[in-house]
Structure to design on (233 residues):
């Protein structure tokens, strides 16, 4: 059991950020310019292995600040075989049964230059099946004010060939997409006492010593729920 706990602790969390910020865009979370729908495609080559996506993050470092839009938004994930280079000028694909709705609600708060969407359901993406596609839908979106300098602009990557985007208002040879994090969880401040490799080694050693002193008794590894820990036995 101790070996299983240690193996799980040392398994790295799958996280990936696609793109590098060299511009910024108010579409689709800062302005209504793009219409009711927005789609972005991510090259399968950016993913080394299948990824179970449970969080999507956009960044606000290139043009910090700004007001996000109001309204209710839906995010969908799906797979497409569209070419990255011509994605922005090709026909828009409206959601059907192959699109998985992973978020429904108002936009999350901008925090530490991040817009983090915690998905209501995870999406298992297999890059061998095609490119990943994100679809954003909102029928009641509204920008805050008419001064475009005060809108929310998120980091975008232009002319790199790993991502591209389009919107439903009109086709446009845009050749850019938002820098996007998949499972890129925000850092939690303040390390816990005993956390990390030394703490795990000490815990494993203590457990082994206890078992040697009490060979016929199974230790109770259940931690009360109110502490926030997870029951492991």
């Amino acid at each position: 059991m101790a070996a299983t706990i240690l193996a799980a602790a040392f398994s790295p969390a799958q996280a990936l950020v696609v793109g590098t910020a060299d511009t910024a865009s108010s579409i689709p979370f800062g302005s209504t310019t793009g219409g009711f729908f927005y789609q972005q495609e991510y090259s399968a080559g950016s993913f080394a292995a299948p990824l179970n996506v449970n969080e999507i993050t956009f960044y606000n470092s290139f043009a910090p600040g700004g007001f996000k839009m109001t309204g209710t938004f839906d995010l969908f994930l799906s797979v497409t075989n569209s070419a990255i280079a011509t994605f922005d000028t090709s026909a828009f694909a409206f959601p059907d049964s192959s699109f998985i709705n992973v978020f429904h609600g108002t936009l999350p708060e901008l925090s530490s230059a991040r817009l983090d969407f915690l998905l209501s359901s995870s999406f298992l993406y297999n890059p061998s099946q095609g490119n990943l596609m994100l679809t954003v839908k909102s029928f009641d979106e509204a920008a805050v004010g008419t001064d475009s300098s005060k809108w929310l602009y998120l980091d975008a990557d232009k002319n790199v060939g790993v991502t591209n985007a389009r919107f439903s208002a009109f086709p446009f040879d845009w050749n850019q997409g938002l820098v996007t994090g998949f499972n890129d969880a925000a850092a939690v401040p303040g390390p816990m006492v005993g956390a990390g490799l030394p703490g795990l080694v000490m815990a494993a050693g203590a457990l082994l010593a206890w078992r040697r002193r009490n060979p016929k008794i199974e230790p109770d590894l259940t931690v009360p729920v109110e502490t926030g820990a997870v029951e492991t036995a």
Remarks:
- Residues 162 and 209 are 52 Å apart (CA to CA).
- Helices lie at 2-10, 196-213.
- The two ends are 9 Å apart (CA to CA).
